[in-house]
Amino acid sequence: MFEKSLTDLIRGIRANKKNEQKYIAACLQEIHQEIKSNDPDIKAQAVSKLTYVRGIPSYDMSWASFHVVEVMSSPKYSQKLTGYLAATQSFRQDTDVLMLTTNLLKKDLASGNHLEVGIALNGLSHIVTPDLARDLCQDLVSMLSHSRPYVRKKVVLVLYKLFLKFPEALRLSFPRLKERLDDSDPSVVCAVVNVICELARKNPKNYLSLAPQLFKLLNTSSNNWMLIKIIKLFGALTPLEPRLAKKLLPPITQQIQTTSAMSLLYECIHTVIIGEMLTSGGNSDALAAMCVSKLKIFLEDPDQNLKYVGLLALSKILPTYPKLVAENRDIILKCIDDHDISIRLRALDLVVGMVNKKNLTDIVKRLMSHLLPSNNNNESSTLPSTLLEPAYRADIINRIIFICSQNSYSNIVSFEWYIAVLVDLTYVAGVDVGELLTTQIMDVGVRVKSVRQYSVKAMQRLLSDSSLLENCQFPESNSEVLYAAAWITGEFCRLYSYPGVTKLPHNVQAVYIQSILKVYAYWANSLTYNWDEDSKQELLRFTEMIKDKISTFCSSTDLEVQERAYNAREIFSIIHQNLSTTHETTFDVENNIYSSTNKSPSIISELYPLFFSYELNPVAPKAQKKVPVPEGLDLDAWINEPLPESENSESEEEEESYGYGYTQKFGGSGDLIFSSGSGTAIGRRRDRKSSKKGYNSEEDEETKEKRRRERNERIKNDPFYISSTGNDLSKHSKSDGLSKRVTEEIDVDSIPVVRLTMDEFIFKTDKKTSKKSKASKKEKRHSPPPVPPVIYTDIGEMPENATLSDEEKDSTKTGNNKPIWNSIPSQSSGILDVDFSGVSNVDLSTPLGADEKFPSMAVYLAPEEVRRREEERVRRRFTERRIKQTQESTSRVKKSKSEKPKSKALEITPNTKNTENKGEQSSKSKKVSKKKRTEETEDRKKKGKKDKGKKPKKKNSISENATLENHDNVVVDEAASIKTLVDSDDIQVLYTLSLGSFTEAKNEPPAMIADFTVRNKCSHKHPLSKLTFTFESTSDIQFDKGLIEIGELQHDEQKSVTIEFKVLGIVGAGLTVSGNIAYEIQSDEETKTNADIPIRFELPMAVFMLNIPKITPEEFKSCVTKTADFPFTGSTSIRLNASINLIEQSFQNDVTRLISMATGTHIVEQVQGAITMYGKSVQGYQVAGLAKLTVEKNIMLVENEIPGSAQNTSVRIELKCTDQAFVDGLIREIDYLFKEL
Amino acid sequence: RHGKIRLKKWFHFFSDKEKASLTTDLTTLILSRKRAMCNVLEHGEHKAFKLRINFFLNHARYASLYFAAGIDCEENELYVLEVIHRYVQLLDEFFGNVCELDIIYNFDKAYYVLDELVLAGELQEPGKKSVITHKRI
User: Fold this and answer.
1) Complex-level ipTM beyond the 0.90 threshold
2) Which ranges are annotated Basic and acidic residues under compositional bias (chain A) (predicted)?
């Protein structure tokens, strides 16, 4: 009564601004109390308050989740509303109480009040989890035909959320969803379009079939909201179906011309662009022009939003119609200077794509001005702070460099200007872009010869700029550029002193040292041309100075710097030493040989070629590929002669074309391709002449025939070839291509295996790329003409003798794939679309299979469904009681019968009815048929199908089911079946496996009994003696006594032995028992032959299954719902090959029995096309299984359907089990069993 | 003082951390916008997660209130602007010349109106009247 209301709370919070935290804490205390109240009003109010408090960041309300659910389930509408609101605001995907909401949601969805349904739907859209989606999808789909459009439209939208969480639902419900496109209510149609639009963006292929319907809507609807979505949807579809684009053009063009809604206009233009309609349509140029002219209206509009989207659309049209965009250059350039960063960035995108030789300088100047601090104070005040942000500056610089360097600097007219720009950027950047600038400067310096002079000068200026050195500890100063500067000056050198270098980063230091050496060498060498005493002294002085300076680097902490410094110092000290010694000697010999003083010491002139003997030039991107194979190199020649072949081939050539040829085809084809053009051809030892003939048909038939005969003779004895006689061949011919190839029918010579020689190879590539005269080709082939070593700055250095033939092709290729600056990266990695993968993988093109049903019907049922089932059950019980009354005796007989397990299932056919059962049979089948019918109708309702045409067929199947009902209480005991272990000339061993005596104690490992039957079937009727079985105990299987001695066995005598063992290991696939059988054969008095046969058999999973009484479907259901008992699942599917009519039959009769046999389970219930199975293993593992028959029609034939043909029929088997290994083993065995069949 | 969030609704599943950092980032970004600027804002690299959430932010300013909607880059910006506009119109109609206090004190009702307009991130009702009639009850 004295609780704060929501308004009080809000007012209180606003009144206590100073100590808000404290106030809220106090309120939370109250809420804690109130929320536990039994009064639903107070509780709801508390939840409502909590929802408000939660709106303030840093307040968590997950602790109250349970109370929220309580309020959600309130019968009062207003409280329900509060509860759902709290849930949508606070629940997360991992909120545990979500599990409790399933039934609540089910109830609310079935509510008669459409508003309640509405809030439930809205709530569901926020809290949906994969589990909820699975459990509720069926209810929602059935609600698609709700009487109120208000509910229908919401259901449609919520279904979209559901699909994201539970993609299977999409396939199941899509037909129903599609129907809603024709809904009478426009907002429902709009909702469907919205959902399909979203789905189509992820996987458009699925929705192409909807195009006609959508097209109709496009032409008839006047709802702009929906038109936008439809047009967007078409934008996703047209790239897949170009014909659609043509059809769409008239209505879209009309919309563009007539609509007054800017958003619709924009969507149309956008779709025209991204839907690739411009490339496929006929009069695309006119359309493009119209689009651009409309976009111009956007750009000129004072509304910034329109300007923004206009620029965005233009940037999308840019790749295809750069010219049209260029027409608007002035407006776009104006937008670069817009004060709004969003617009600026979009304009920049465009500008980057518009750059050409003419406007490059101007554009770069504009961009540079963005980086420079503006002089005008007024202007800078209007600039938002974002423009000064480092990220923005870095972006601008990146763009400048991108537009300049794209297409190998093709837009740059003056490289000197570019170097100047780069140097300027170094100073004005204000962000760390040093690395980028460095690579650019070096790249340009190396590539462009003419600019080297200039760049060295510019670099000198950079090097001598003390401000860079002083600020080098800040990353923004870009002192890394000095790296390039030093390198360039070193490489193309003119400079030699660097004070204050020690503070620089290590990698820059390292380059400095290297450059010093280079510069020094250059300078020293230049001195040698004019050598005299002065220059020598100067050289000496400098050498000493540099040596001293370098010494400081010798103690650098950086390894690279240190090493280089030591190297340099050593070189300098050698020179110094050398200089000073020659100094003395020149003094000594001055009198004698005057001329020697004018000669410089040799060491100086030798230093120079170390660095400068070759000029450094860029390497062309293709250079590596173009390296020709040197004349003398024969890649086919053996480096070491191979070992001589074991079998002497008849002739060298024979060996060549067959034996060797085949192996060569797989292993050595690479060699053949690269064999040089000088004459070595296919084979390694074949001479040129034969290679020319090669596999040519010119070879006369006679030699061919001879060769073939010789070959067949040879391979007859070759164990590696499969003999090719008669019928044997047909078996292999399909699977084994190789065996086919070696058969005598096939003309091996005609198979075009390897025919490539280098001559042809070159010829081919030439043909493709350029049409040069044949003469030049020939010339090239034999002696490639020396390509003049001209170095193009934009091609780069090529290896000598390289052909430039395919250069043209590649350049055109790169021309097409002109890189477009794209600041909007593909959103594939965005977190906004993490969860679409499932939905986009759903394939809607194949029709629904019979087995595809909404899941979990057994677990959760819609309320109406529950009621219906209840009625059904009551009715059934009633009829059952009546039958009982009339035929009490027969039912008793049946009961006793069901408890009696039958031993051999395979023998049982529908004809094995006992005569005494006959009387009861009819009544029973009647009863069963009734039961079946009720179940079937239920089933039918579940599927939402009201197919009355099937009735006659149904009856048929019922009688079938009825007969089958008689057999399925048979527990199939596969273990009883006898298998063969050994069957040799002397002996035959059969075995059966069965469960040993077991105790209920679960800890004890299961015991097994193996019964062996040994028979002496020695063909010479000799007796076998000392017959023993030995078995090895392994970690999995333990034998108490692993040795059985049988002794002597006369001819045709048969003996049985039994051995018991325990299975210790994990019962799963691949449990094998191994051992061996040893015996002696006494053929006559003297000769005894010892035999030792290894034996090995697998333990099938079914052996572990217990013979348990059959359970009823009801028991089965209740048992399976305890999911804790069946944590593990396995599934497989088996393809059946039979016509559809037979399949039903064979599924009902044979397949199910085989499955139940393989798994050792019994069939619980059998309905048309599906069975359920249940079994229990000796370890106490429970196995529940479901096998369903799926008939998939071939999609291609849907239209002209031919019954019973082109159908894929498979049985899907799903098993649930208590143990993972066990269920895996079972699945494997089923697979094996059916593979054999 | 500024930048209090009155209403927020997520149509995608984000972690609490993501939500928090997104809201703070966007609040500062939006508040830095001037009146004459366009209503689309790009919020690219997200520092907190190194995830690229590349969406445009559409915001429209009404009196002292900002309405913002995060969209992905395939969405039609003008369309979303109109949705925002429609929402404000609805609030106006529902409260009768809406002001910030209306939304503060009746935040739940503001949410309900939004729920009627937008469901699962999609516009569910293009007609203005039907939204109001459903909410009046």
Assistant:
1) no
2) 729-743, 864-874, 896-905
